[in-house]
Amino acid sequence: MTPENKSSDTSLEYLSSTCLVFFSSRAYSQHDHAWIITMTLEEIRGQENTMEHNERVQSAGTALEELLLAAKKQDYLTVGVYESAKVMNVDPDSVAFCVLATDQEHACDIALQIHFTLIQAFCFDNDINVVRVTDIERLADLVGADEGGEPKDAHCILVTSPSANPWKDPALDKLSLFCEQSRSMCDWVPTITFPER
Question: How far apart are the C-alpha atoms of 193 and 180, rounded to whole Å?
Answer without folding.
Answer: 17
